[in-house]
Amino acid sequence: MVTDRYAVVGNPIAHSKSPFIHQQFAQQLQQNLSYETLLIEQSVNETAEQVFKRVLTSLFKQNFKGFNITVPYKQVAFEFAQIKTPRAQLAGAVNTLYLNEQQQIVGDNTDGCGLVRDLTERYQRRITGRSVLILGAGGAVRGVLEPLLALSPSRCVIVNRSLLKAQELAQQFDVLAQQYLPTKQLEAIEYSQLNGQLFDLVINGTSASLQGSLPPLPEQLFTPNGWAYDMMYSAYPTPFMQWALLHEAARALDGLGMLVEQAAEAFYLWRGMRPNTDVVLEAVRALLRNNAPVLENIEFPPEIGGYQGRPEPTRFGDWEHKGRCIDY
Ligand SMILES: NC(=O)c1ccc[n+]([C@@H]2O[C@H](COP(=O)([O-])OP(=O)(O)OC[C@H]3O[C@@H](n4cnc5c(N)ncnc54)[C@H](OP(=O)(O)O)[C@@H]3O)[C@@H](O)[C@H]2O)c1
């Protein structure tokens, strides 16, 4: 029997958890497939974009049935796809590729659905009628706006260092804002305008956590039951999660659930089957923890933890603080 092949494409790619996640899905659903990482970089004669298009075209003609696309190729994948799904068109980016029955290359974007499923199904967080603040205006935010707006939050605000980028996004999603928001408007603001505003849900879609830093946030940002969600994930709670908990967020989540859910949606597009994502999330969380460096001089504020070194393999325990918790 021929084994169907899949891969995640990016640069860098060695750190990707996608092979582990998809292998877990395949095992769970008894699917005969392989899933690899594929590093694409420029060569002497070709740009990285040209290499991307040449290599993927060739692999689709072999046994490869689909690809996940990550940084920095989501826009390249968008151009490469012959058919773009409506959610890919709205996102202007593609994170999943596959062939349809006519052997055309289809590009989809499952990031937004991954975030919404993690929040609303796994954590049962109601978004309808609640105020939402989104930090950042890059590719990840663009990908999640449509499914978030479709849930009709009471208001939705984008804040970004570059106000122009936030305003452009607000403009592009204006039709959806008018359709879904009671305020009829997706608001775009600068960080200095956050003073005095409180939100039920604050989603960090910036890449600040990647640099170990935080956007310039005011002292008060959360309503009494306000939640924080960092699209980034890591072995340790991200700077934004730590900040949120110390600033009275009721709960702080990282983006590992989003990663698993967007992968599950891609798996569904490829195989027509939905895996149980809870068990896979637990497994990938354990993998992250086990590979985490032991922190000798832990710098997390003592109020939200107090452990030394490697985190304990419990889901909520380590970071419980005054009845609030980091899901970690
Ligand atoms: N969990 C998942 O499945 C998943 C999926 C996709 C992405 N992500 C995560 O989402 C994050 C954003 O990814 P992306 O692809 O959207 O990146 P991107 O397109 O490069 O956008 C980065 C955004 O972050 C802002 N930013 C960067 N550093 C900042 C800082 N120090 N303070 C304030 N704002 C800062 C940028 O603001 P300016 O415009 O002003 O420069 C921009 O809005 C990353 O952490 C990525 O890992 C997670």
Topology:
Blueprint: E1 4-10, H1 18-28, E2 33-39, H2 48-61, E3 64-69, H3 74-80, E4 83-84, H4 86-91, E5 96-99, E6 105-108, H5 111-122, E7 131-135, H6 139-149, E8 155-159, H7 163-172, H8 174-180, E9 186-189, E10 199-204, E11 222-230, H9 239-246, E12 251-253, H10 256-271, H11 277-290, E13 325-327
Parallel strand pairs: 1-2, 1-3, 4-6, 7-8, 7-10, 8-9, 10-11, 11-12, 12-13
Antiparallel strand pairs: 3-5, 5-6
Helix pairs in contact: 1-10, 1-11, 5-6, 5-10, 10-11
The structure holds NADP nicotinamide-adenine-dinucleotide phosphate (NAP).
Q: If you had to describe this structure to a student in words, what would you say it looks like?
A:
- There is one protein chain.
- This protein is an alpha/beta fold and 328 residues long.
- 35% of the residues lie in helices and 20% in strands.
- It is built from eleven helices and 13 strands.
- A seven-stranded parallel beta sheet has the order 9-8-7-10-11-12-13.
- Helix 9 links the parallel strand 11 and strand 12.
- It is globular.
- The C terminus is likely disordered.
- The chain binds NADP nicotinamide-adenine-dinucleotide phosphate.
- The site of NADP nicotinamide-adenine-dinucleotide phosphate has 28 residues, from helix 5, helix 6 and helix 10.
